[in-house]
Amino acid sequence: MTLILKRNKDNGVSTIGELSIDGKFFCYTLEDVYRKEKVYGETRIPAGTYKIGLTNSPKFSKRYGHYMLTLKDVPNFERILIHKGNTAKDTAGCILVGAKVQGDEIEKGTSTPAYNSLYKVVYDSVLFGDLSITIIDKEEKEEGVEKEESVEKEDGVEKEEGAEKEESVEKEDGAEKKERAKVEKKRKE
Predict the structure, then answer these.
(1) Residue 155: left (phi > 0), alpha (psi -120 to 50), or beta?
(2) pLDDT truncated to tens, each residue of the chain (189 aa)?
(3) Nearest-angstrom CA–CA distance, 92 and 44
């Protein structure tokens, strides 16, 4: 399964994109805007290819009733999730999904169905560790992902490497192992 997010429009309020699965349009996306210097919770992640895993999010897992889709090893960012939402105020660097876009927002009432459909479609691939997402800026060419201009993003926020990061990775890996075990048990029944 191949996920590609093509960022189409950064209007200074949000970045609107299109998510495709195996070459077919699936839904729209909304992210924060590009910033030369990272502003915590207000800057989209760098273009690139990232593995998708599962994590227990203190903010969302209980509300959604399941582990959350998370992008792994995003440079200078942590806990980048794919979740529901309508405006740039609903994201802190995460990727929001929706079936329709209205201006610089996901149209109200379309995010939850798009998210639920996406989760169902990608769940098994994520669970067994074989799903990535490629994020392409409008300036990039899809083949070879060549950039017309260099897009560098700086952290701007000090973060400790080492133990804290290892603990986060262990928690994410633990969440994925629990989910895999649950699915394997259901398959055997």
Answers:
(1) alpha
(2) 999 999 999 999 999 999 999 999 999 999 999 998 899 999 999 999 999 999 999 999 999 999 999 999 999 999 999 999 999 999 999 999 999 999 999 999 999 999 999 999 999 999 888 899 999 998 654 443 333 333 333 333 333 333 333 344 445 566 777 777 776 666 666
(3) 8
The residues, any chain, with a CB within 8 Å of residue 137's CB and separated by 6 or more, are 7, 34, 47, 147, 151
Element (H, E) at 17: strand 15-21
Q: Are strands 105-106 and 132-136 parallel, antiparallel or unpaired?
A: unpaired
Q: Which residue has the tokens 């075990």?
A: 181
> How far apart (Å, rounded) are the C-alpha atoms in residues 138 and 147?
9
d(CA 172, CA 90): 23
pTM, two decimal places? 0.76
Strand-pair category, 132-136 with 80-83: unpaired
